[in-house]
């Protein structure tokens, strides 16, 4: 007889029967799937199982995609009324909703993120971006961006692996609403939902060539960036690659937006509601395994509440369920790639070496796949690498401050400026702090909230321009001043 009640969860795996993954994929060019030449495997990072073979886009593939996008722009898309374009965007949004389960399962298999997140966050938000921009397509002259705006033409779009479908939506929806056609390249580890999206374009009877998807790695991305037939580049990814792209585009007439890295400060003042703050500190850094550009990766605690916050945080972290991303009860899934796992390990080792103190939540990690336990470092100083560099994993660096001004100064002491969080029950302090923080998005008493109507983007090395809202729309129109 058991003397203790057990509150263990029974396994609750989502079925993968809803998706059919082909053994091999090509590119989506001119409304058709065309065979690739060379291929590379895409794996499930939770099991290391090979899911499919993805085509490595070559110069001739990129040429063909740009040519087809140009043709579609000239002959169809630029001639169509905004109202007609909007109908296609609405149709795409509705099909994404109808096929939501398929998208969520595929995203989780290819990316490693928990099904709960792909199902409840990535896919609904991706559809929401199409709905939102569908509404703008016939109202561009009322967006406050001028009445003589025009699309750029062909947009080249390169996206990362952390939110594969959602980043596609952030790129494709405004581009199409504004009247551009696109050539999009998904990240090499997460191409499958973009290829499913290509099927949705076919199903929506989107005119051929309006959306082209070329898969591949950084070399394919560079071919898109440097292609003379492209008018606008939109990139989301590392600051390192963002700088390469900025240099490549500088001597050309291409328009450019960059969404790069971050090292967000999440600032807890002494008058914060501590229990609520702890819940959102966890969401801020452990959502999507910490593979989030705006993750609250630097926790700044006012000294007199630091001990209480840390003790509650550890208790809460011990309850995070790490494991099978397909299980509906999982909170923290697999690290997206072996390469990324090595980077997280390397930066964490630097934290140990530089004298910070590591604490990881006790949890059992699966034997296969790429995993990292939820971890915090205390005793971090501003010069430590783990306080300055983007770890892009489930690792939180904790610093303390005495006065509110010191908290702000430490928060701003970073090469990045994408997002920040403020925790205080006092409205005047929230307003005071948010006015001084150099960050594109500031959350107060919450964290990681996204909405298609709200512009997103950074200061300093976090990038150029905004995505979402009217600001994001302006990046896909000529004749509007950006930022
Ligand atoms: P990355 O910046 O190399 O990759 C992002 C995208 O850019 C991928 O589609 C990739 O194929 C493409 N790309 C790579 N080199 C290119 C080039 N020279 N020209 C054009 N496109 C190119 O990011 P990676 O290597 O996957 O991750 C490295 C680190 O970057 C991460 O550890 C993280 O710190 C950061 N990162 C930040 C992201 C963010 O949203 N802020 C997203 C992804 C990575
Ligand atoms: Mg790379």
Explain the overall architecture.
By secondary structure, the chain is of the alpha/beta class. It has helices spanning 59-77, 82-98, 100-111, 115-136, 164-177, 192-203, 218-225, 239-249, 274-286, 303-317, 338-353, 385-388, 404-412, 427-436, 469-474, and strands at 27-29, 32-34, 39-44, 49-55, 150-151, 154-158, 181-185, 211-213, 232-236, 255-259, 265-268, 298-302, 357-360, 375-378, 395-401, 419-423, 441-444, 463-464, 477-478. The structure holds 1,4-dihydronicotinamide adenine dinucleotide (NAI) and magnesium ion (MG). 1,4-dihydronicotinamide adenine dinucleotide (NAI) is lined by residues 158-162, 185, 187-188, 217-218, 221-222, 225, 236-238, 241, 244-245, 260-261, 293, 340, 343, 390, 392.
List the helices and strands and how they pair.
Elements: E1 27-29, E2 32-34, E3 39-44, E4 49-55, H1 59-77, H2 82-98, H3 100-111, H4 115-136, E5 150-151, E6 154-158, H5 164-177, E7 181-185, H6 192-203, E8 211-213, H7 218-225, E9 232-236, H8 239-249, E10 255-259, E11 265-268, H9 274-286, E12 298-302, H10 303-317, H11 338-353, E13 357-360, E14 375-378, H12 385-388, E15 395-401, H13 404-412, E16 419-423, H14 427-436, E17 441-444, E18 463-464, H15 469-474, E19 477-478
Parallel strand pairs: 6-7, 6-9, 7-8, 9-10, 11-12, 11-16, 12-15, 14-15, 16-17
Antiparallel strand pairs: 1-2, 3-4, 5-19, 10-18, 13-14
Helix pairs in contact: 2-4, 3-4, 4-5, 9-10
The protein binds 1,4-dihydronicotinamide adenine dinucleotide (NAI) and magnesium ion (MG).
The site of 1,4-dihydronicotinamide adenine dinucleotide (NAI) has 26 residues, from helix 7, helix 8 and helix 11.
């Amino acid at each position: 007889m058991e003397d203790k009640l057990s509150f263990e969860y029974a396994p609750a795996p989502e079925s993968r029967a809803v998706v059919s993954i082909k053994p091999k994929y090509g590119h989506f060019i001119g409304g058709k799937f065309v065979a690739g030449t060379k291929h590379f495997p895409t794996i499930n990072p939770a099991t290391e199982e090979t899911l499919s073979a993805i085509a490595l886009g070559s110069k001739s593939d990129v040429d063909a995609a740009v040519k087809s996008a140009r043709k579609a722009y000239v002959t169809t898309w630029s001639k169509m009324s905004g109202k007609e374009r909007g109908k296609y965007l609405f149709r795409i949004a509705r099909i994404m909703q109808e096929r939501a389960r398929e998208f969520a399962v595929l995203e989780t298999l290819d990316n490693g993120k928990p099904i709960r997140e792909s199902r409840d966050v990535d896919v609904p938000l991706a559809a929401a971006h199409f709905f939102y921009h569908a509404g703008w397509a016939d109202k561009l002259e009322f967006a406050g961006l001028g009445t003589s705006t025009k699309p750029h033409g062909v947009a080249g779009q390169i996206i990362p692996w952390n939110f594969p479908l959602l980043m596609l939506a952030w790129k494709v929806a405004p581009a199409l609403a504004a009247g551009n056609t696109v050539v999009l390249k998904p990240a090499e580890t997460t191409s499958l939902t973009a290829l499913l999206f290509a099927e949705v374009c076919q199903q929506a009877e989107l005119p051929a060539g309006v959306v082209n998807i070329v898969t591949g790695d950084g070399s394919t991305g560079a071919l898109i960036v440097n292609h003379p037939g492209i008018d606008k580049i939109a990139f989301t990814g590392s600051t390192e690659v963002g700088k390469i792209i900025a240099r490549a585009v500088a001597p050309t007439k291409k328009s450019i937006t960059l969404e790069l890295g971050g090292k967000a400060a999440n600032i807890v003042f002494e008058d914060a509601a501590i229990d609520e703050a702890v819940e959102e500190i966890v969401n801020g850094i452990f959502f999507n395994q910490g593979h989030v550009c705006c993750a609250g990766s630097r926790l700044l605690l006012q000294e007199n509440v630091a001990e209480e916050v840390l003790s509650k945080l550890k208790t809460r972290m011990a309850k995070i369920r790490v494991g099978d991303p397909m299980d509906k009860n999982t909170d923290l899934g697999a690290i997206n790639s072996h390469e990324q796992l090595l980077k997280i390990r390397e930066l964490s080792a630097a934290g140990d070496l530089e004298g910070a103190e590591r604490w990881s939540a006790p949890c059992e990690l699966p034997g296969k796949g790429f995993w990292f336990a939820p971890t915090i470092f205390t005793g971090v100083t501003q010069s430590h690498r783990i306080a300055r560099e983007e770890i892009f994993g489930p690792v939180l660096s904790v610093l303390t401050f005495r006065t509110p001004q010191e908290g702000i100064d430490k928060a701003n002491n970073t090469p990045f400026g994408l997002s920040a969080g403020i925790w205080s029950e006092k409205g005047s302090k929230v307003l005071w702090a948010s006015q001084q923080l150099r960050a594109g998005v500031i959350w107060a008493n919450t964290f990681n909230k996204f909405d298609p109507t709200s512009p997103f983007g950074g200061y300093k090395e976090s990038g150029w321009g905004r995505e979402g809202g009217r600001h994001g729309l302006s990046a896909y129109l000529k004749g509007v001043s950006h930022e």
